Structures are given as C-alpha cells and as structure tokens.
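Still learning folds. Look over my entry:

…
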Amino acid sequence: MKRFISIVLAMAAALQLVSAKDYLVTDFGAKADGVTLNSAYIQAAIDYVSGNGGGRLVFTPGNYVTGTVYLKSGVTLHLEAGASLLGSSNPWDFVKDPYINWTSMIFALKQDNIGISGEGTIDGRGFIVANRLVEYIHRGLFEDQLKLDRPYEANRPQNIYFRECSNVKVTGITLKDPGSWNQTYDQCHNVYVEGLTVDSKSYWNNDGIDIVDCEDVIIRNCFIDAADDVYCFRSHSADHMCRNVLLENCVGRSSANGVKFGTVSKGGFKNFTIRNITMYDTYRSAITFAAVDGAEIEDILVDGVRSLHTGNVVFLRMGERWNTVTPKDGREPYRKKPYMKNVVIRNVYAEVPLDKPDAGYNYEGPIEDLPRNISPAIIVAGIPQYRMEGITLENFEIVMPGGSNPLYAFRGTSPEDLDGIDEMISYYPEFSQWKELPAWGAYLRHADGVTLRNIKFKALAPEYRPAIVADDVDGLSLENVSCDEPGQDAKKQTVTYKTTTKE
C-alpha cells in the first residue's frame, strides 16, 4: 500500500503542470527551415517564458535546428505534430555541462515544473554528430580517449538530461537518434513519462530511458527500440536511490537488456511496481536486477511479462565491484554491504531462441566467434558473502530451444563441477558471463528463501543438462514445477547441492 500511495502522490504532482500561457518560438526569431541554428533564439524564449510566469513554448510544424539549450522552471516545450527539434550536426554547438560533466541537447538543472509535450519529434541526429566528433578527434581538435574508435559517451550529446528537478512531465513526443544515452532523469522528484515513442539505435550507448536516483516516478504506455538498455534504472550515488517507481504498459526492444537495475548501483532501488511489460528481439535479459556496487534492492514486484525472442528471461545478481564509499564528511572510506530481498516476479511468458535475438539490427550485441550453449532462462546468483533473500518466481511458462551440444561444452553437476563455477564477484553483471551453466531452465546459487511456484519449463529439443540446479540455497521451495523435454520422461530434472528444501 505504501508503494501505491507514493506513486499516486507523484502522479498528482506531475499532472499539476498546467501551462499559464502559450508562446510561439518563432516570435523570438526561431526559424523552422532545417538550416538556421536556433539555439540562441530558443534559449531567449525559454528565459522569457520562465521569467514571466511560465507557460508553453510552442513549436509549430517545421524543422528547428539547435545545439544545447537549458529548460527553466515553469516552462513546457510543446512540439506540435510535424514539428522537429533537430540536433545540430556540428559537435561544437553542444555544451558539456560542468556540473553534470555530460553533453546534451536539452538540459535542465535544479528546475521545477518543467515538461516536454506534443506529437512532435526530438531528433538528435546522433550518428552524424558522433562521427563528426570522431573526425575532429583524429585531427587533434578535440581531446578524447576514443576507445574502439568511439568518443567517450559523456562527450556525445544526449537528447535530454534533467538533473535535480521536481515535477517533471514528458508526454507524447517521439525521441530518436541521440549521440549517446537518450533521456536521463537524475536525482529528480515527481517524474511522469507517458506515451513516448523512442527510436534510439543510431549509435553506441543508445539507452532508451535512464532513471538515476529518482523518487516518485511513473513511466507508462511507452514504446522504446534501443541499441542499449531500454528501461534502465541506475544509482550513481551511495547517498541516493531510485524509490517509489511505477513502470507499466510498456514495450521494448534492445541489443542489451529490457528492464534493468544498474549497472551502476551504488545507492539502491526500493518500492518498484513493474507490470504489463513486453520485451522482444532482446540480446540480453528481459528483466535484470544487479547489486554489484553496494546497492540495496528491496520490495520489488514484477507482474506480467512477455519475453519474446530474448537471450535470457530473468537475471538477478549480487556482486562486489565498486562497493567502496568515500564519505563527504571526511570519514574513512568503507565497503558498503549490498542486499537484494523481497523480490516477486510473476505471470511471465517467455520464448528463448537458439539464434542471436537481435541479429540484423543497427548495433547488435557482441557477436561471438564460437557457439555456446544457451544459458538458463532464469539465473538467481548471489555470492557467498552477499546472499539474496526472499525471491519468489511464480506463474511462469518458458519455452527453450534445447539441443545443447555436450561435445562442444560440458558443465556437469558433480560437486567438483559445481564448486568449480567461478563466483565472478567483481565482473560486469551479464547473464552470459559464465558462458555455460549446468542447467537449461533455472540456476540458483547463494540465496535464502527461494520459491518457484507454478513454473512450466519446456525444451523443444533434448538437453544433456537438467532443468534446475540449486547450489547453496537455504529454504528452496518448488511448487508445481514441471519440465517438458522430448524423450526425457525418466530424466532427473532437478539437482540440489548444499541446499535445504522447504516443504
């Protein structure tokens, strides 16, 4: 109940963003000719509207080229159908803000009652600007580490970056082709995002939406196609966290992950409701929650997931990577203890393919030179010093390809084999990090109180591995769990090791 009260309050606050008056951006000199650089005109208009009681700054149909602008309190940018904000193709027209240390087309810093609305488009033209930036770096005009011939992501412009703002409302628009991440809401309160269409796969690191250490957030009725993580929740500060979040009725496609906590996960994620989500053609996990940097993850409900043609369905992971916290008050640095508990994921239908799920998209996930056997659909992997607690998975139907080849790779279930699986406590958390695990359905390790209830695993071809392996699980409950594998009716499908079961 507490979770829903907070979300309703957030929604009520966000919906109070009522525009006092409409202003046409063309009245301030902006030209919708697709050529004129309008940054100064748009900024002057924003400043005027904010200083005169607030209102909507209206972009009528046409193409408005711009570099960086800063949205101010009380102002909503309203893009009418047929109106496009086009990112300049010149990297020098974008500001790397010194407070955030990032580059963006639209910034807002410590502002209140702001928004973007309408049926128009924000098009970062990121592929063009990023490649021009590469050219300038090679010519020595711009300093950048240029790893893999890619400029550092903070030097490439996002479409939107809002930091420490309150009462933020973004609705209806189309966002496309950022140079880096797409839209970031960082340490904001009362954020309402609805009805967005996002095409974010023009360049590397093109996330769909990033919510960083925000409280009271609603995201609903969005469609996002992204080269990188789709609905990504991050915690960059040990002193903050993502809290009181509703994500519902959304669709996503990714060459990385669908709904993700992390990977930077220093503070935590609490009181989340995620429901009615569809993920398809997704290279990594449909749902992944990671606490590898000291995060506290608690009270998470995921209810209703369709995972179609995704590499993995659920990946829950503990680790110890960037856990060291340096207090601002001068105290000695210390190691923060992460935890993950009270996570419920239910009502899931999933199909995992044999082939690469995102093959043919602009920017694919890593292409492996050698085949590997398909990872389990479900991975719940704590580490010995940080165990998971209270994980419930119920009402799942999962269809796996089966057909793994024991002559290519073999991970057995003997004590020696299971003890030999690397803990990988400091690795970047991805479901495929082990390459091969000894189960095809679910692999559970270092956790307390794990319940699998009403779960149907189906393999389309015979597997040499069992469906379920539980290693060092205290209080495992398997209730109405079935495993359907061709010609394997007599096969032992559940292997437990150092595990206690709960009747």
Notes: Residues 259-503 form one domain. The first strand starts at residue 22 and ends at 24. Residues 248 and 258 are 13 Å apart (CA to CA).
